[in-house]
Backbone:
């Protein structure tokens, strides 16, 4: 495969909570840099609870010579805190943001100056012009809190019209759901790149837990196969590699702009999938 036809990838991490986690993530990143990612992103905890850890990880990635994107969320944020975050990120050399509404921390009441991600996108554009490339979230299988698929699609279009440059999807295992979503968005005049989010399958219980929480659909045949493996982690990982590699091949054949890997701060599965794809 020529460098020209190589599908770009990006990789997501979450901020570690311990010194051991920081050291482990540093080693994982070094392994994943072999894939030459376009950028690496770092998530932001509920209500901005991991801001220091997020910014520290972003700083480390930049120091390692790789472009870094910081997540930024509006739950619990004020215009003043976001303004300060933007100034910090700009001074660090960050050029890309992943702008989200964010999850409500447990026991958290209302009280944010931003109700929706579109409000935050609009504010960032007003404050910083074109200083940042802004990505937003997309939900091919509908946001779990959306009133309907139509309402969800309009909410997505509103975020893009507020000033987003592109989108990254929630993970999914049905390529048709992604392609249908892109078609529907296109029909609403949304033409920014919509990058599929890819979740490697390495643990059955972890995948079920995440998917139940975020509304990602696990097709029944995948669920039953995973249940059939019981505690056989080697079989779960081998099956997961086959399923996710096949999904990526379908997406690439359909002309996706790039792939965004949810690494879960691990390197093995993402490396193996990309190796199988010739990336």
Residues:
């Amino acid at each position: 495969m020529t460098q020209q036809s190589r599908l770009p990838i990006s990789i997501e991490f979450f901020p570690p909570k311990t010194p051991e986690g920081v050291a482990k993530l540093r080693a994982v990143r070094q392994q994943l840099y072999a894939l030459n990612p376009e950028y690496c992103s770092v998530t932001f905890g509920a209500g901005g609870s991991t801001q220091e850890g997020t910014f520290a990880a972003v700083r480390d990635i930049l120091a390692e010579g790789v472009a870094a994107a910081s997540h930024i969320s509006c739950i619990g944020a004020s215009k003043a805190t976001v303004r300060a975050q933007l100034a910090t990120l700009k001074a660090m050399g960050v050029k890309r943001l992943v702008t989200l509404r964010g999850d409500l921390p447990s026991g958290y009441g209302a009280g944010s100056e931003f109700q929706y991600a579109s409000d935050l996108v609009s504010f960032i554009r007003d404050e910083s012009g074109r200083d940042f490339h802004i990505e937003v979230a997309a939900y091919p299988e509908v946001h779990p809190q959306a009133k309907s698929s139509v309402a969800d699609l309009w909410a997505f279009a509103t975020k893009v019209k507020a000033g987003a440059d592109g989108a990254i999807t929630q993970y999914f295992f049905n390529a048709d759901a992604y392609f249908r979503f892109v078609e529907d968005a296109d029909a609403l005049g949304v033409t920014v790149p919509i990058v599929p989010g890819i979740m490697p399958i390495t643990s059955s219980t972890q995948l079920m837990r995440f998917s139940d929480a975020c509304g990602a659909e696990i097709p029944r045949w995948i669920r039953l196969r995973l249940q059939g493996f019981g505690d056989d982690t080697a079989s779960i990982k081998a099956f997961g590699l086959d399923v996710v590699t096949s999904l990526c091949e379908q997406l690439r054949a359909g002309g996706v702009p790039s792939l965004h890997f949810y690494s879960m701060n691990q390197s093995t599965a993402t490396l193996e999938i990309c190796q199988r794809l010739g990336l």
